[in-house]
């Protein structure tokens, strides 16, 4: 398994891809990913299970979730649209942070597969194909149109996610609705000071149960979840802006530059300054 150092040239990227039957290591990255399967059968591997996708299926991959996909037959290469985007893009969408919930919910709570028979999968496919066509034709205003199709996709994924939570039989024990509101609050306010006691009160749970439920829902502790969101945001600013490292640290919610450097080094293996220097050399 390896970290795929995907660098998004834009906050939003639609790419049509073709893949053969070639075994390879699972990879992970900090971009949010949606895979829209167009032609032939594919195998999607995650850490704990395999999914077998058919044309019309949609797969939602969470940031830092190891995965790969490949064709099931040597004679039939798989064709799909890969949507990659930075979570920072939702700041321009009304209630945008709410639409990110499916990407930050553990697979045990929300399957990455949206099956072709779901009407939401059909809507996602139609929007993705239109988004790719807009980029290919590059008519005036194509980026604005592509952005609108992207919003349609996020809304469809979110509505599918909400329906899944309503269907207790398919999702197992239904999560506490107050805990869902906690996740939404964190997604909206992770750059600010967040008091753990505030989240516990919001959840209407005792402290021990709150931490247990939060980890069940996200696979992370509350502090790990907040830190990961901040580091994702910081990584985008390092790659795409000229802001100083100190500015980025404080803007993303870190109240100590030394703590930010330590967390980033644990996250990427190098310090923020080294990361930016490597990027500069790569772009020259």
Written account of the structure:
This protein is an alpha+beta fold. The protein folds into two domains: 2-171, Jelly Rolls, CATH 2.60.120.10; 177-283, Arc Repressor Mutant, subunit A (Orthogonal Bundle). Helix content is 48%, strand content 17%. It has eleven helices and ten strands. It has helices at 96-99, 119-137, 142-166, 168-171, 177-189, 196-203, 207-218, 222-240, 245-251, 257-268, 272-283, and strands spanning 2-3, 12-19, 27-28, 32-39, 42-46, 50-53, 58-61, 67-71, 78-85, 113-114. The strands form three sheets. It has a five-stranded antiparallel β-sheet with strand order 2-9-4-7-10, with helices on one face. Helix 2 (119-137) packs antiparallel against helix 3. The longest helix is centred in the middle third of the chain and has 25 residues, at 142-166. It is globular. Mean pLDDT is 84; it is low at 1-5 and 168-172. InterPro entries: AraC-bd, HTH_AraC, HTH_AraC-typ_CS. Keywords: DNA-binding, Transcription, Transcription regulation. Residues 180-278 form the HTH araC/xylS-type domain.
